Amino acid sequence: MKETLRTILLAVCIAVSIVANAQSEQWKAYLDMNNMEDALQRGDTATFKRLAYRVVRWKGWNPLVFYYTDQYKFLKDCDWWPELDSIQQAIHGRKDYSYAETLYQMEQEDQAARRAFNDPDHTHTKSVEDSLSRRMHEVDSVNLARLVWLMDTLGFPSWDRVCSYGAHAAWLIAQHAHPWFQYGYVKQMRKAVADTNADPSNLAYLEDRLRTGRGLPQLYGTQFTSTGENNRTVWQCPIADIKNVNLRRGQMLMPPLEDYIEGYLKTETEQGRLDSDTPLTEMGDNYVRYYYLGDQYSLLPLDKQEGVTDAVAYTTTGDYCAAISIFCSRLSNHYPFVCDLKHYMECLLRSKCVGDQYCYISHYEVLERMVLCGYEPDAWLDSLPDTLTMPLLADYANLRDEYLRYLNHEDDAELTAALASRADFEALLRSGKNYHRYELDAWNHAYPLLRKMTDELTKGDYEEFFALLWREVERGNLHAEDYASLYDHTYYRLYGKDWYRTLAAGVPSARPTTDKHIRTAKPKTLNERRRTVCLPSVK
Length: 539
What we know:
The structure is a single chain. The chain is an all-alpha fold. The protein is about 60% helix and about 0% strand. The protein is built from 24 helices and three strands. Strands 1-2-3 form a three-stranded mixed β-sheet, with no helix packed on it. It is elongated, with a radius of gyration of 27 Å.
């Protein structure tokens, strides 16, 4: 019996070893592909030849790509090309090259539209820029429809089906698709990567793109955004559990984050999209100023602004279509606060404009984003139709696991303990540590504890306490409207008036009261103050 078990175990170990070696060879071939271009640039033809043989054997890289890419056309004149081509032909039957060529042509159309729009050598007029932008979005829409049909008809574009260049083309098109498509694409790509049948670094890019698009921090540090004059101030989107980011990048066969950032800035500068002295800036304290308040857009007409206050203003007049369009097209990428998502869900349910082409976010997607921003089911969920709540509750466990997976639980415990004591909480905030809510769960439950702290404040120390809280608003930890509610609660207790008019009945606020007779301090500047805390103006 023991001999039989030993034999079985030995056979299993040998089989696992064979599979592991085969996968290892495939990953080496993947790395070789990245090194082929370097060898070509160095003029090292011998190394290029060795790498090309490995790639063709393991990846089935369709030689037709050599005819489309100028730098590889020299291969046709090499004396070893027939042998390389014969190897390719031997595995030809396992590939669908017509599928791959279709994807490659779609990629060329995608890149041509973007090159025209982003050409740094031409200064476009507003009308020309709008035309190029429309053209780019038209190409994206057509490519998405074609990719959906191809995948439904021919299957997922993995290495073994469409070769590496076809898989890369499909991934690039997915990068520019709507989030609803990216979500399903990522699920299939994860399986392909697990089977060593897709590029793990491509998966990392798409995972980050999808997460930032759903209001979550990225995992691998691949995503940047820009603002400022001519979009030349670069921001790095928030990264979850940044202490371990290079470990995660290594698992996806990617270089350390520091090297990636250096290369990114160099490339953007060489291509004229950045100035040579442009620094890379973390979101930090500018997070809410840019994504939540609208920053430099605040002086533009209402329909041109990008701040959440504009969407709120539209909802107060009953123009839900305009509000939802602003939310979907401008605010949804980086939107961390559950209370606002609740508000927009209610707007969606009251509106008749869900079919609008700009309102592609569904009811379920808003609920999903709420969970991914820390929402836990409560009585509010019971007030929604069963057709919405049942799918969410069925998916809740998985969504909650995804939310909790990359939180910084050590910092979470530290902040939770400090919230039990005003002295400890103030000391923690004065320490300068940035408790970004994307990495913490405690901020979602902080309001009642902060309310108790404000009961201890006096006329001599309340301003200092709220200065500390405002910094957390700017960092995206505390909702600006919650800050206003806490401030009014304290100001009314100390002076008999409110400051932001959140205590008066009938005025939209985080937690309004029903007292109609509360006076507001300095009413002439009220609307100016309300705008700073994301509240609509009052007449």
